[in-house]
Amino acid sequence: MVDVRNNNGGFVNAYALDVLARRGYLYFQNRNGSGQPIAARSQLGQRALEAPTILPTNQHSLSDAEDFTEGYRSLKLGTVVGKPTAGWIVYTSNVPLIDGTTIQLPGTLVTTSTGEKMEMSPRPVDIRIDRPLGGELFRQGPPARRVGRGATEADQLAAFRKQGPIDRNGQTAVVSPLITWVPML
């Protein structure tokens, strides 16, 4: 699970996406055939996760979290779940003033690979999950609101939990709510 909920920016998306997008092509195994094959890239220190992932987002994911979400979707790295991002992606640059101070002004437009402007355009989710305020405290699940083809969000979430997210190779990802993978860059 790569969790970008409540992430308000920075610039690490390119580095993290690079690690997630690296694909394995070699495995190591004992010559006598004992033991399980292990992913070679990771063993060689080539920062590669080589495992299925899922990406939770929410309305408080903005700026770099939105870049990351767009890259994650474009590269088909896994399923995006939760709520759409904020749509608050603005790149600024320092502009010096005559008194020696600086201000930051927007100067770079960010677009998707298809040319869509990302500013004021929240990144969508594959599976929307709404949690009521205090819902976990009272053990309430997502609200039963009708979405697409007559299924409720609760039905979609139950099916998702049963099947699990599918990674880029069509395999079911293993998801634990207690573990969040964070790249060490």
Instruction: Please mark out the parts with pLDDT under 50 across 5 or more consecutive residues, or reply none.
Output: 142-150, 165-185
What's the overall average pLDDT, rounded?
Answer: 77
State the end-to-end CA separation.
17 Å
Shape assignment: extended
Strand order in the largest sheet:
3-4-7
**Helical residue percent?**
10-25%
Give your account of this protein's structure.
With 185 residues, the protein is of the alpha/beta class. It has a domain of 110 residues. It has four helices and seven strands, in the order αββαβαββββα. The strands form three sheets. The protein has a three-stranded parallel beta sheet, with helices on both faces. A hairpin with a 5-residue loop joins β5 and β6.
List the SSEs and their pairings.
Blueprint (H helix, E strand, L loop, with lengths): L12 H9 L5 E2 L9 E2 H4 L9 E5 L6 H11 L3 E5 L8 E6 L5 E7 L18 E2 L24 H11 L22
Parallel strand pairs: 3-4, 4-7
Antiparallel strand pairs: 1-2, 5-6
Give descriptors for this structure:
185 residues, three-stranded parallel sheet, 4 helices, two-stranded antiparallel sheet, alpha/beta, single chain, 19% helix
In short:
By secondary structure, the protein is α/β, with parallel strands linked by helices.
